[in-house]
Amino acid sequence: MRQIYSKYIGVVCLSAIASLLASNPLRAACISAMNTPQWPSIARSVRTVQLCEQIPVGPNHTARFQIIALDACQSAPGISSIVARALLTCESGSESILPLPPVEGEVTAAITLDTNACIIRETNVQISGDLGMLLSGLGETQQFARDWAQTQLSSLCRLR
């Protein structure tokens, strides 16, 4: 269950930053992925994410996963950061024996990466709302996010 957020948030964030860095040298300090030609393809991939289905018990059906912001910034040559914010609602599936009320939260993921060295420098995943309270016991979320993001970045770098 701890890998849920690191896995899918990393996909969205790293895919977006890879698209932005490949097609736009980030002439400005920051750019919103939502205002780029790549946004429709990023949005299509985001709509396929089903985070809640990975939860073994409780509300395990994704009712909503909506990116509300995705920004990429270049702080120095080869050093980029992305921040993604998404609204997530999990609800009990139709096959649930004991239906539970929906659980909502806002997921914020921030990743700093060195695109020249292909390393993740920093990750931070925050989950607010009832969903955050439900998952607050997962103390290793940050390390899982970092490990998964590094794996994805390494894969993307091999494609260069």
State mean pLDDT (0 to 100 scale).
75
- Can you count the beta strands? 5
What is the overall silhouette? elongated
Q: Helix and strand succession?
A: HEHEEEEHH
Cross-sheet strand order for the largest sheet: 1-2-3-4-5
Structural domain count: 1
The assigned structural class equals alpha+beta
Radius of gyration: 16 Å
* Poorly predicted runs: 1-13
Structure description:
With 160 residues, the chain is an alpha+beta fold. It has one domain (3-158). It is built from four helices and five strands. The chain has helices at residues 3-23, 39-47, 129-134, 141-158; strands at 30-32, 61-76, 79-91, 103-114, 119-127. It has a five-stranded antiparallel sheet with strand order 1-2-3-4-5. α1 (3-23) runs parallel beside α4. The N and C termini lie far apart (32 Å). Mean pLDDT is 75; it is low at 1-13.
